[in-house]
Write a structure and sequence with these properties.
The complex is a heterodimer.
Chain A lengths: L3 E10 L2 E11 L4 E5 L6 H9 L6 E6 L2 E2 L10 E4 L11 H11 L4 H15 L14 H13 L5 E5 L7 H18 L2 E6 L2 H7 L2 E6 L2 E6 L1 H6 L4 H6 L6 E10 L2 E7 L5 E5 L12 E6 L4 E2 L11 E13 L3 E8 L2 E8 L9 E7 L4 E3 L10
Parallel strand pairs in A: 3-8, 3-9, 6-7, 7-8
Antiparallel strand pairs in A: 1-2, 1-4, 4-5, 9-10, 11-12, 11-14, 12-13, 14-20, 15-19, 16-17, 16-19, 17-18
Helix pairs in contact in A: 2-3, 2-4, 3-4
Chain B lengths: L1 H4 L8 H29 L3 H5 L13 H8 L11 H31 L5 H10 L5 H15 L5 H25 L3 H9 L4 H9 L4 H17 L2 H6 L6 H9 L8 H31 L6
Classes of the chains: A alpha+beta, B mainly alpha.
GO cellular component, one term (chain B): plasma membrane
Pfam families (chain B): BPD_transp_1 (PF00528)
Subcellular location (chain B): Cell membrane
Chain lengths: ~375, ~290
């Protein structure tokens, strides 16, 4: 049993089920990120934890207490909203202490709590201002202050960074992570940004179509995605997924697929269990950073396969140069070092880190496991 | 509104602009003509009017007609002037406007932030009340007021106007609150605020513009109402009914200067409300239609 338990939670509007039997146990101090595209049910799940949406069936419990029918204010949670939801007619100080006031906390105690939070978030100088006079980043801090001051069991964040500009978003991301490390509180955080999910979380739940597709640590999710959806959703640029055939040569399974010229190339797999798929179709997943120039290949990898292929387009991105090529009839992206000598239309010797390659069943789109 | 002049949709040349202003000026003069006639004639002795020149400025300026209209003119059978009726109107209009506005705000709050099954049907029915002609409800309303023991009293008139006003005030507030971010209400819920606390502490403080619209609309309608006043006023008739009695009297000399003064007196409060709060009116009506 976890600190926050979501057991078989289902949400339906009339006959339409939008969330199917979600099961997540969150440990105390964990930073759980719910990530997925729009409409995957992640915000609905968060609102169910907050008590803003009812639970159709199943249970949500905090510290063993089922809170399905407990009013939001009595669940001992705090929420940071996407729009910050600061009360426009109140000063920053009033915004932060409103919840304490509503819970009947004496004035002196409120002032002390306000002072602590203001110092922690470095917003002491803003306390007398109205939200309208604050910048986006400052509003964000105030919204977090309002959550922190309540000292809740669970913090809920609903896409808190999506209204900030790119640079501020990165700064605030670091800030949130620092806060979590410092305070060690339990956090459930909703985002559609997979980078936020990877960087912030201790565990990620990737959601799609009302199902949790995979629940695991960021490393699990990235290196061992359960299915094609998780594989392509997490990571930027997305994982290359292309049709291929398994062919066993010398007792070792290989992926056979067509290069840009239509010639078949063989890439040796590191996973012996794929031999069972000899002659069958699979989907081959290779992350862009596993397709490199030979000098940029991972030295720790036990299985670097050479591939000579024609370059389609090059996209210099400063730190890296991305190269597009045709592989297995699909566009594939590789990630070269910035100074790799690549030119559009020319043949190039790529190095492919097959240790990181993943094979999916083309029917179920699930990862083929031993 | 000074911003609007620098932000017009179409750039206009000097000639066009002059033409527009001349045109508008002519119309303004045309529409101001009746007011001029009323003001000019209310400030001259009756003899100057009966001589036949209504359009001329007074030769002898006098406030006599105003004093007479206010305190000693014959209204019906009593020489009371309009003063007691003015007071009646105030006693009726203030609570009626306040109550209907507060109820409209509450309705709007519930219909947008505490939605329930059938809320749109309820809102539709409330809207429907805006389209019911006054005359249809006179007899049923008279019966209800009689049963409640409020017939012919100011509280009775207040009730009638509140009931009639709720449709409009609800419409205003509902549309205004529809644009109000629901996340704020949710945040307040999590903070532990209850139904009325959210209303008083979160919603009402930002409802200024639409409250002004509601107050102007209700004030003008209730102050200017004649039919309900004449039907249900009894011993406490409002200003409009008294003015009618003053102007329509069929015996004695018709004191046009007093009539003009009385008419202006009757119109003053609404004028005042418009001048004080008018610029919020358009702003409030447009609020929420454009982001920002």
């Amino acid at each position: 049993m976890g600190f926050l338990d979501i057991r078989n939670a289902t949400k339906a509007y009339g006959n339409v089920e939008v969330l199917h039997r979600v099961d997540i146990a969150v440990e105390e101090g964990e930073f759980l990120v719910l990530v997925g595209p729009s409409g995957c049910g992640k915000s609905t799940l968060l609102n169910m934890i907050a008590g803003l949406e009812t639970v159709t069936s199943g249970d949500i419990a905090i510290q063993g207490r089922v809170i399905n029918n407990v009013h939001p204010s009595k669940r001992n949670i705090a929420m940071v909203f996407q729009s910050y939801a600061l009360y426009p007619n109140m000063t920053v100080a009033q915004n932060i202490t409103f919840g304490l006031e509503m819970h009947g906390v004496p004035k002196a105690e409120r002032a002390r709590a306000l002072e602590d939070v203001a110092q922690l978030l470095q917003i002491d100088h803003l306390l007398d201002r109205k939200p309208g006079q604050l910048s986006g980043g400052q509003r964000q801090r105030v919204a977090m202050g309002r959550a922190l001051v309540r000292d809740p069991d669970v913090f809920l964040f609903d896409e808190p960074l999506s209204n900030l500009d790119a640079k501020l978003r990165v700064d605030m991301r670091t800030e949130i992570k620092k806060l979590h490390q410092k305070l060690g509180r339990t956090i459930v955080y909703v985002t559609h940004d997979q980078i936020e999910a990877m960087t912030l979380s201790t565990r990620i739940a990737v959601m799609y179509g009302g199902h949790v597709q995979q629940l695991g640590t960021p490393k699990d999710i990235y290196d061992a995605p359960e299915n094609v959806f998780v594989a392509t959703f997490m990571g930027s640029p997305a994982m290359n997924v292309m049709p291929a055939k398994v062919r066993v040569a010398d007792g070792v399974p290989h992926a056979a697929l067509a290069d840009a010229e239509g010639q078949e190339v063989l890439l040796r797999f590191s996973q012996p269990h794929l031999a069972a798929w000899d002659g069958r179709d699979i989907l081959l997943g290779i992350r862009p950073e596993a397709i490199t120039d030979p000098d940029g290949a991972d030295r720790n990898s036990s299985n670097i396969e050479p591939l000579r292929n024609r370059i389609g387009v090059t996209e210099p991105a400063g730190a890296d140069t991305f190269v597009t090529m045709t592989l297995g009839g699909k566009d594939a992206i590789g990630r070269m070092r910035a100074d790799a000598q690549v030119a559009a239309g020319e043949m190039f010797d790529f190095a492919i880190n097959m240790e990181k390659a993943i094979a999916f069943d083309p029917q179920t789109e699930a990862r083929i496991k031993p | 509104m000074s911003v609007a002049t620098q932000d017009t949709a179409v750039r206009t040349g000097r000639v066009t602009r002059t033409f527009i202003y001349v045109f508008l000026l002519l119309f303004a003069l045309f529409y101001l003509m009746p007011l001029f006639v009323m003001l000019a004639n209310s400030l001259k002795p009756l003899s100057e009017i009966t001589e036949g020149n209504m359009m001329a400025l007074p030769k002898v300026w006098t406030l006599e007609p105003w004093a007479k209209a206010w305190s000693s003119a014959q209204i019906g059978v009593e020489p009371t002037g309009l003063r007691p009726y003015f007071l009646n109107s105030i006693l009726m209009v203030v609570p009626a406007v306040a109550i209907s506005t507060v109820l409209g705000a509450l309705n709007g709050y519930v219909l947008t932030k505490w939605r329930f099954r059938g809320d749109s049907i309820l809102f539709g029915l409330l809207l429907f009340s805006c389209f019911i002609p006054f005359q249809i409800v006179l007899i049923p309303m008279a019966m209800v007021l009689g049963k409640l023991g409020l017939a012919g009293s100011i509280p009775g008139l207040v009730l009638v106007h509140v009931v009639y006003g709720i449709g409009f005030t609800t419409l205003y507030f509902r549309n205004y609150y529809a644009a109000f971010p629901t996340e704020l209400v949710r945040a307040a819920m999590i903070d532990g605020a209850g139904f009325f606390q959210i209303f008083w502490r979160i919603m009402l403080p930002v409802s200024g513009p639409i409250a002004v619209v509601s107050v102007i609309w209700q004030f003008t309608n209730i102050w200017n109402d004649f039919l309900f006043g004449a039907s249900f006023g009894g011993q406490s008739q409002p200003m409009t009914v008294a003015l009618n009695n003053l102007v329509q009297s069929s015996t004695g000399v018709k004191e046009y200067n007093v009539h003009f003064a009385g008419a202006i007196l009757a119109a003053l409060p609404t004028l005042l409300v418009y001048i004080v709060a008018g610029r919020y009116f358009v702003r409030g009506l447009m609020a929420g239609s454009v982001k920002g």
